[in-house]
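Quick one: co-fold with 4-nitrophenyl beta-D-glucopyranoside.
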Amino acid sequence: MSDFPVFPPGFEFGAATSAYQIEGGTRDDGRGPSIWDTFSRRAGAVSDGTSGETACDHYHRHREDVALLADLGVSVYRFSVAWPRVQPSGSGPVNARGLDFYARLVDDLLEAGIKPVATLYHWDLPQPLEDRGGWRSRGTAERFAEYTALVAERLGDRVARWITLNEPWCSAFLGYANGEHAPGAREGTPALAAAHHLLVGHGLAMGALRAAGVREAGISLNLDRVRPATPDPADAEAALRAETQRNLMWTDPLLTGRYAPGEPDTFGELIERQDFRREGDLALVSAPMDFLGLNYYTPSTVRAAPWREPDPARRTAMDNRFEGVDHPGVRHTAMGWAVVPDALRDLLVSLRDRYGALLPPIHITENGSAEHDVPAADGIVHDADRIAYLESHLRAAAAAIADGVDLRGYTAWSLLDNFEWAFGHSRRFGLVHVDFPTGTRTPKASYHWYKAAIAASAAREHRGE
Ligand code: PNW
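Sure, here it is.
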């Protein structure tokens, strides 16, 4: 008898990573530059001045990482394909050496009995496409579908599950509105065009995947559980604005084929024109998906704020008529993110309640925590806080299943400590400690805990419980 969270038979446990965060080898085998290579070099863009140039050197050490996954006992591994390896300039013929890397990775995973789950876009846009407008331009969505077709043609027979985009909210708003992520733009309407073109790119890529015979395809969204700070109706309205921008402007068009009620208004005065939205787009965007990927870390509590005219030098399309307030009385991770596992359960249930039969099965494609990890004298990171985070969120996930949510799997973020975007190496999410820059990998206590939880689940399933 163990105390590990209990899941139905067939529930899939996994671990996740993304290309730019772990691979390194940014100039190897003909890879072209991505917007993150460019952005990382900008002074002040990454807090510790690092970049993904070396990262975990996974490009050269992927066998070791597959061995870690095998030892962990996961049944799925979620990784991403770097577009600039496959098409160094973002369009045109395939760079065979780049695509070969993923073919080798996939073969090694299959040989280890691990199901590969491939994300096609985890933020590393080829720089030449950004030079032509990036996601502000519809052409990028079209190029994305062409790239998707090339990858699916090569790997579609061995990769069963595909994720088109990772967290388009981050790409659109952190990338083109508040400038915290590549390409670091602070613009108005173009961020909304980026949001729309990301959705169109997803729809076109779904078509390319279907044409290649892919049967399991979806998207990963970072959805937020938003609560009003007080019962004041002004705060309730602020929460709805936040909810619309964070969740509904993605899930409504994807699942219902309509933009959320009030969505154009949520950006208020900053929407000058929306002619980037074309007739027929929403039919594309709402192509049926086989699953919805959910990335969840922390909820938001918001209150009403007066409209503040954006500083012209720092223009932003973000609605600023709401602001986040802190969650007192709960632990916060090294990201400063409040730990509220019940919010994961509430979020899953609220998705089911809002979309009903339109909601496909859900996979949690990311969940985990950054902690102030320090290896002890024995060389091991004793990350009790990360274990508590994982355990409580797995329990919340199991509770949502008991509430009737069709949740099929959970991939922990992340297998490895890696390049945490604007925080560089200063935040660690790994189950495995990575010593930068030597790249030495050492499983943390949380890795051993997760391994035991997965084994307990497998043993229970074996006994037919
Ligand atoms: C996600 N935010 O990023 C990404 O999918 C991962 O690549 C990343 O490492 C992980 O979560 C941890 O941060 C996010 O500001 C980055 O709300 C920023 C935000 C959300 C998600």
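If it helps, The first helix runs from residue 19 to 22.
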